């Protein structure tokens, strides 16, 4: 299975080497795994002598993809997302651009031979156990040029960041990458009672990978519209600096202040209630932070005393009509994030309440929205601005049935 993935990567690389222009556009996710993936690809294509345009995205929104695929003859790489939307990318591409998908989420096969879906999920590897986005990029990088083996520790940062462990330890391809970094003296593995801790030794200060990942997560999420991802890539490649520390502190202050103010509003009656759902709307009050913040905010308050433990919790945040570095895009959409209390979590696990993975996508589809990351206990989708109440009502209808 791994062999076939390697072969597929080799085929894609052969096509890259046959391109007349050495130019690449990289789109990568904004969490620690996505930033690590972006850093590995940046170094890899730099070394290969490519001119590069790199974009960090919170999600590969269809409105953005339509713009991306107006071009022809390009090399387009997606990292840490897009595995599942390979058929859609194939329809948009129609043989016109060489496209590579280096994701590790659940995937669907491409229908365009120019769209290479190199998601290990298609090759029998488990993206939530064996291999992260960063390790997928690392595998690809190594095949392109064995010199890229020196990026193994960055693969480990992403793997730890995604928190997929087996008995507290990295497994599969992620473990291979970590062991390579250990051999190079860039990583140390400390064993403890419940597994292992991974300490980065490649930079001036030794830092545990989990702390490094949390640092990247804040830069990418809270700093999304303020060049946080650029700083994240730099930190992955060169380590933390006083400058990156200052940016992190500034972002933490912005986040804490925004959350505190929103908690006060929710407590003071801005939480609307329907029979099964409680919901609120932050409009653009989390600006200039990214829309991942609405999910993080729901996580922060889901078990608070002022939240009804027996109702689903939903929060809305307006998606800015802009992708940093890419320019304006008229999304005119709002993001909804949903979470549940510990009590509801038990109910859903026991099968007595409907999981969010069914409830939210079903209601979203009826309104022509876009659903991406929906799990039983956490879910998020987007719908057009103005359809918020209809979406809540749609979910109530599903629950009444
Ligand atoms: Mn990932």
Write a structural description:
By secondary structure, the protein is α/β, with parallel strands linked by helices. Among the domains are: 2-150, inorganic pyrophosphatase (n-terminal core); 271-400, Diaminopimelate Epimerase, Chain A, domain 1 (Roll), CATH 3.10.310. 44% of the residues lie in helices and 19% in strands. The protein contains 14 helices and 16 strands. It has helices at residues 2-17, 32-47, 62-68, 86-93, 133-144, 152-161, 172-183, 209-221, 228-238, 242-270, 292-301, 342-349, 356-366, 388-400; strands spanning 23-29, 51-57, 75-79, 98-102, 115-117, 187-192, 195-200, 207-208, 272-273, 277-281, 312-318, 322-323, 327-328, 333-339, 370-374, 379-384. The protein has a 6-stranded mixed β-sheet, with helices on both faces. A 5-stranded parallel β-sheet has the order 2-1-3-4-5, with helices on both faces. Strands 6-7-8 form a 3-stranded antiparallel β-sheet. Helix 2 (32-47) runs parallel beside helix 5 and helix 13 (356-366) packs across helix 14 (388-400). The chain is globular. The model has no long low-confidence stretch (mean pLDDT 96). The site of manganese (II) ion has 6 residues, from loops.
């Amino acid at each position: 299975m791994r062999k076939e993935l390697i072969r597929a990567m080799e085929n894609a690389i052969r096509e890259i080497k046959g391109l007349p222009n050495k130019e690449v556009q990289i789109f990568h996710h904004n969490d620690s795994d996505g930033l690590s993936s972006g850093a590995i690809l940046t170094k890899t294509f730099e070394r290969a002598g490519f001119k590069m345009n790199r974009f960090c995205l919170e999600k590969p929104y269809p409105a953005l993809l339509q713009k991306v695929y107006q071009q022809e003859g390009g090399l387009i790489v997606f990292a840490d997302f897009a595995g599942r939307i390979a058929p859609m990318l194939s329809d948009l591409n129609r043989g016109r651009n060489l496209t590579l998908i280096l994701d590790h989420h659940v995937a669907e096969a491409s229908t365009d031979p120019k769209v290479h879906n190199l998601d290990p999920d298609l090759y029998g590897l488990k993206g939530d156990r064996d291999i992260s986005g960063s390790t997928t990029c690392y595998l690809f990088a190594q095949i392109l040029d064995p010199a890229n083996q020196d990026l193994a520790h960055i693969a480990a940062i992403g793997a730890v960041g995604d928190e997929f462990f087996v008995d507290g330890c990295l497994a599969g391809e992620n473990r291979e990458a970590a062991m390579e970094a250990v051999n190079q003296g860039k990583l140390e593995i400390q064993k403890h009672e419940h597994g292992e801790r991974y300490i980065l030794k490649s930079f001036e200060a030794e830092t545990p990978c989990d702390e490094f990942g949390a640092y990247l997560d804040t830069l990418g999420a809270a700093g999304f519209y303020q060049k946080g991802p650029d700083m994240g890539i730099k930190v992955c490649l060169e380590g933390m600096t006083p400058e990156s520390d200052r940016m992190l502190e500034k972002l933490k202050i912005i986040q804490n202040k925004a959350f505190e103010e929103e908690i006060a509003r929710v407590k003071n009656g801005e939480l609307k209630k329907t029979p099964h759902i409680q919901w609120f709307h932050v409009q653009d009050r989390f600006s200039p932070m990214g829309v991942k913040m609405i999910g993080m905010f729901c996580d922060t308050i889901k078990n608070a005393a002022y939240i009804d433990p027996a109702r689903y919790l939903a929060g809305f945040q307006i998606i800015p009509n802009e992708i940093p570095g890419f320019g304006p895009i008229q999304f005119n959409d709002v993001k909804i994030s949903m979470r549940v209390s510990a009590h509801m979590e038990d109910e859903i696990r026991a099968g007595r309440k409907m999981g969010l993975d069914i409830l939210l996508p079903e209601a979203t589809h009826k309104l022509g929205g876009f659903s991406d990351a929906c799990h039983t206990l956490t879910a998020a989708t987007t719908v057009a601005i103005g359809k918020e109440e209809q979406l809540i009502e749609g979910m109530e209808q599903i629950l009444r049935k």
